[in-house]
Amino acid sequence: MTSTPPRAGRRRRPVLIPALAVLAAATVGVTAAFGGLKDAPAKQLEQLGKGAEVDQVRMRTKFEDAVVRPGGKDGIGTSDKRYLQIIMKVTNQSDATMLAQIMDDALPTVRADGKTLKPAADPDVTLGPRVVVVSGGHAYDQLHPGMTATVVMAFELASGQPAPERVVIGAATYEWYESFFSETHYWVPVTEEAPLTAEDRKKGRTVRYEPVIDTQVSLPVREEAQ
After folding, report:
1. How far apart are CA 68 and CA 75, in angstroms?
2. pLDDT digits (tens, 9 = 90+) for 166-186
3. Do β-strands 59-70 and 148-156 pair in parallel, antiparallel, or remain unpaired?
4. Do 185 and 178 contact (CB within 8 A), yes or no?
């Protein structure tokens, strides 16, 4: 779609660096070398809980529940395995149908009792969690414009793995981005440059971007009987 969406996101703007800014940067470097500056404080994230609604521009997400249950219900997984399921009400605020799996990008980080579930240690070799729209006991893969649907993000648990007590989910924000080269528009998560990891350097990457996360939602996890 190239039409203007009903709600616009934040746009990237070119960064201009005047001479005074360069001089200021050099001064900061000298000052820091002599111990004149302290480390910048960590960014404070908005902390929300069960039932919270987060406006992610492309979609609005209400975080309703987190549950560990056997598979097979609502077309998710198989009955001989257990799954951690994050249950949400998602409203598609754009003017185009989108796949439910988009929520995998919209929620870049998930931690269970402090253990990272997303992002995976090696995103090149994992398919990530399954994300589906659930209705009438069946699983679907589309979210239509202006509609609110129940969306489930499911993580398979290892055999014998206990249910976590709590999950913490990081929510990204989308923007309506214009491509300079193709003169087209599309939705992308707002990103920022991040430090390179050892794995990045090993693979020859010179730059890495991560989604900007302004909001975290913490949900208690309940467990349903086998």
Report:
1. 15
2. 999 999 999 998 776 767 888
3. unpaired
4. yes
